Amino acid sequence: MNESRETTAAEVDAYYAQLDREAEASGYHLNPDRETTWQLVRGLLVNKARYGYQACPCRLASGDKRQDLDIICPCDYRDPDLSDYGACYCSLYVDSDVREGKKAVRPVPERRPAQLATAQASETPTPEGGTSLWRCRVCGYLCARNAPPEVCPICKAKKERFEVLKLAVIARG
Q1: In terms of CB atoms within 10 Å, which end of the chain has fewer, N or C?
Q2: Same domain, 32 and 79
Q3: Radius of gyration (Cα) for the chain, nearest Å?
Q4: What is the mean pLDDT of residues 10-24?
């Protein structure tokens, strides 16, 4: 993986156009908010460089592709989210009403079973002293760090808008 190389704007623009063509050809639509969608597409490329696969930019990936299969974009939860809420969890994909401005994107609750997210977070190596799982209260972006980022890479919310998540420990048997 090559997470040290910076993803360029040209790469994001090209992948954005490709995703848009593929989505429309398959009967799906990308979010019409270009800034938000551009940042999400950038997150997909960053995760692809980091992990070797397109983990959803709105969820914490473990780095183990087998464990993350359900959150490789488009994730397993996209279609039920679109059906029930008009957008997927991160709002990369939206339904026709959102795309046409007939309705706004609204918050989508997390469908991923807590035991998957918790198990993967608990298996993520942590530096000495431990790492917390931080969630942006604005867009739901997750990151494992000692402190929240200064600015959310997805929605640009300030660090004060992050909350630390309390995770349950899962017994393995």
Answers
A1: C
A2: yes
A3: 16
A4: 96
Domain identity same for 14 and 74: yes
Total structural domains in the chain?
2
CATH number at residue 81: 3.90.460.10
Q: Quick check: is 31 in a domain?
A: yes
pTM for this model (two decimals): 0.65
Domain hosting residue 146, numbered range: 114-165
Same domain, 88 and 159: no
Q: What is the pLDDT of residues 56-98, one digit of tens each?
A: 998 989 999 989 999 999 998 999 999 999 999 999 999 999 9
Domain boundary among 74, 99, 124: 99
Query: Is residue 153, in this structure, part of any structural domain at all?
Result: yes
CA 75 – CA 68 distance, rounded (Å): 9
- What gap in Å lies between CA 121 and CA 169, rounded to an integer? 10
